């Protein structure tokens, strides 16, 4: 196996590793019962405010908690989109974003369904939409990074 093939396989493994890590994290967090999940996010918000010597009011806690949880969706699925698009860039039959988005949205939908069986949790179609936005951002970042790499490394 040539040097360029080893680099390609190494990059492919890295991209797939990122996508799998994001998927495992999503399954882990969505499998937590509602009280445990809320406790974790409330703990993070309290810790963040504590860094500034503040204690959030219940209203502020609820608002920041909401955005923290939405941001977690975006971040995990951004990572998944980046990984999947990076992995699919090696084939040339279809644009990389197409199978990446299809697999990612299907995973998001099944993950939301999985939440229905985690005590005190609900599966929300709006979360699947938010996850799709994270996937799209990750695919866009993958495209831009690939373009930048090609510009620097190819004639």
Write structural notes for this entry.
- The chain has five helices and no strands.
- It is mainly α.
- Helix 1 runs antiparallel to helix 3 (about 60-90), helix 2 (about 35-50) crosses helix 3 (about 60-90) and helix 3 packs across helix 4.
- The protein is elongated and about 55 Å long.
- The two termini are about 25 Å apart.
- The mean pLDDT is about 90.
Question: What order do the helices and strands come in, and which of them pair?
Answer:
Blueprint: H1 3-30, H2 34-51, H3 58-88, H4 97-115, H5 125-153
Helix pairs in contact: 1-3, 1-4, 2-3, 3-4, 3-5, 4-5
Q: Please provide the count of β strands.
A: 0
- The rough form would be described as elongated
Cα separation of the termini? 23 Å
User: Count of DSSP helices?
Assistant: 5
What's the gyration radius in Å? 18 Å
> What is the makeup of the main sheet?
none
Parts with pLDDT < 50 across at least 5 consecutive residues? none
Oligomer: single chain
For the residues shown, what is the average pLDDT? 92
Helix content: over 70%
- What proportion strand? under 5%
Which key phrases capture this entry?
155 residues; mainly alpha; 0% strand
In short:
With 155 residues, this protein is mainly α.
């Amino acid at each position: 196996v040539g040097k360029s093939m080893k680099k390609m396989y190494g990059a492919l493994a890295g991209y797939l590793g990122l996508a799998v890590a994001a998927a495992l994290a999503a399954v882990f967090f969505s499998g937590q019962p509602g009280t445990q999940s809320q406790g974790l996010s409330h703990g993070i918000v309290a810790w963040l405010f504590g860094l500034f010597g503040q204690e959030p009011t219940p209203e502020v806690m609820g608002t920041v908690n909401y955005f923290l949880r939405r941001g977690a969706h975006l971040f995990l699925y951004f990572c998944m989109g980046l990984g999947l698009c990076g992995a699919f860039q090696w084939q040339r039959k279809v644009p990389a974003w197409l199978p990446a988005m299809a697999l990612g949205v299907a995973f998001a939908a099944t993950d939301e369904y999985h939440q229905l069986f985690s005590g005190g949790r609900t599966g929300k179609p709006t979360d699947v939409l938010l996850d799709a936005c994270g996937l799209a951002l990750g695919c866009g970042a993958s495209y831009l990074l690939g373009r930048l790499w090609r510009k620097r490394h190819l004639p």
